[in-house]
Specification:
The radius of gyration is 22 Å and the shape is globular. The chain is about 40% helix and about 15% strand. Helix 3 runs parallel beside helix 11 and helix 4 crosses helix 9. The protein has about 425 residues and is of the alpha/beta class. The chain folds into 2 domains: about 130 residues, Aspartate Aminotransferase, domain 1; about 240 residues, Type I PLP-dependent aspartate aminotransferase-like (Major domain) (Aspartate Aminotransferase, domain 2, 3-Layer(aba) Sandwich). It contains 14 helices and 15 strands.
């Protein structure tokens, strides 16, 4: 494979062009298709073709909810595209204070801090919490250790790279491995565990009750990335912790507005003093413009809709089960156990997954593949994502396309 690259660079940045050409030849470069209608609708127009949308995380369909759209219009009239500055400068408009309080109340936490993206929340948390801000405080440089599930989202790993805390990866959902590694670091400084509430690419939940118990035994700070659980799980949509009856048992909860809440942005929720500390120490918060008022208004309205969204959650889970039963009945190998709404379909080799997603698109379904490095090599898959807004006929049309493409590519008999 390395023979495809020239031994020496012949011109400035030539190696970048050579690597790009390699990625395209081997079907590694992603397909960037043009979405010409609302990408959150169950039927979308992409590259001029109407397709069933199975790649959108707007689980409850709240991006188009009447109350959300109305709130956006009102905020646009009041603020335009602003606030136009950081929260420390002109950006701390009242609606953002309301949003922070709404997130905290929704998750059963004392306080919350919001960011323009979920990526920024995960980039900020470890450096702000575990590295010295002045002198030796809050913690001496390099004395903290973060125990991270090996399959945590890329944004978590990127955030850890920005911190001087030691990173210890434990085997995916292997709690014996986690305990053993925690025991090896007893008495060696502050400890933190970070895992996810929902493994969306695997279609199942994390074993949070056991993780919470382990964190308590080892006096470790516990952070849950619940981006795919909030709004979907729990009696009132409070996420995976509410689902397990563990509200308030994690020190930090990370979430995003761009999944079940249908908007854009991210947040961290926890104890008031910790969140107040982030307002001074989280660099992506201090040095970035604030969440736009229109998105804050959308977040407030969507939380209200999610809290009262039992009917929407029932529709989502009905659609998830329809897809799981249909795809399994066709003979596809599925990940997961039905505890998460996503239905990941195993494909295998990366090049085959690219062929599969392209054939599905030709047949009227948009469902891009997840491949390395998002999944282990040789375990590429299609993460089929239902929404409450899908009608039965949309999903039946999608199943027909999966049947045809799966048979053509030898994935099913």
């Amino acid at each position: 494979m390395l023979k495809e690259f020239p031994a020496e660079e012949t011109s400035k940045l030539q190696r970048v062009s050579d690597t790009l050409a390699f990625a395209e030849r081997h079907l590694v470069y992603p397909d960037y298709r043009v979405v010409e209608s609302a990408g959150t609708d169950p039927l979308a127009v992409i590259d001029g073709q109407e397709v069933v949308m199975l790649a959108c995380n707007d689980y409850l369909g709240l991006s188009r909810h009447p109350s959300v759209v109305e709130a956006i219009h009102a905020a646009a009239d009041a603020h335009g595209s602003g606030p136009g500055g950081t929260r420390i400068m002109c950006g701390n408009v009242a609606i953002l204070e309301t949003l922070d309080a709404k997130v905290a109340e929704f998750l059963g936490c004392e306080d919350a801090i919001t960011f323009p993206t979920g990526y920024m929340a995960n980039l900020s948390v470890f450096h702000a919490l575990l590295d010295p801000w002045f002198g030796l405080f809050p913690y001496r440089r390099g004395t903290a250790t973060v125990f991270a599930d090996a399959h945590n989202h890329a944004t978590v790993h990127d955030g850890l790279r920005l911190s001087d805390a030691k990173r210890v990866l434990y085997k995916h959902d292997d709690l014996a491995d986690l305990e053993a590694k925690l025991a090896q670091h007893e008495g060696k400084g502050p400890k933190m565990i970070v895992t996810e509430g929902v493994w969306s690419v695997e279609g199942r939940l994390s074993p949070l009750p056991e993780v919470v118990a382990i964190a308590q035994r080892h006096e470790a700070i516990l952070m849950i990335d619940d981006a795919h659980g909030i709004g979907v799980l729990g009696e009132h949509g409070g996420g995976t912790l509410e689902h397990f009856g563990l509200t308030g048992r994690a020190d930090l909860v990370m979430g995003s507005f761009d999944k079940a809440l249908g908007g854009m942005g991210g947040f961290l929720a926890g104890k008031k003093d910790v969140i107040r500390w982030f307002r001074m120490a989280a660099r992506a918060y201090v040095f970035s413009s604030a969440v736009p008022a229109i998105m804050a208004a959308a977040g407030i309205a969507s939380i209200d809709a999610a809290r009262d969204g039992k009917l929407l959650r029932r529709r989502l889970w009905r659609n998830s089960e329809l897809l799981r039963q249909g795809l399994g009945g066709l003979g596809f190998r599925l990940f997961g156990d039905g505890t998460a709404p996503t239905v990941p379909v195993f494909v295998g080799e990366e090049h085959l997954a690219m062929r599969f997603q392209r054939r599905l698109f030709e047949l009227g379904v948009y469902a891009p593949a997840f491949r390395w490095p998002a999944t282990p090599k040789g375990e590429a898959r299609i993460r089929v994502t239902p929404m409450a807004s899908h009608e039965t006929e949309h999903l039946e049309r999608a199943l027909d396309a999966f049947r045809k493409a799966g048979r053509e590519l030898g994935l099913i008999g």
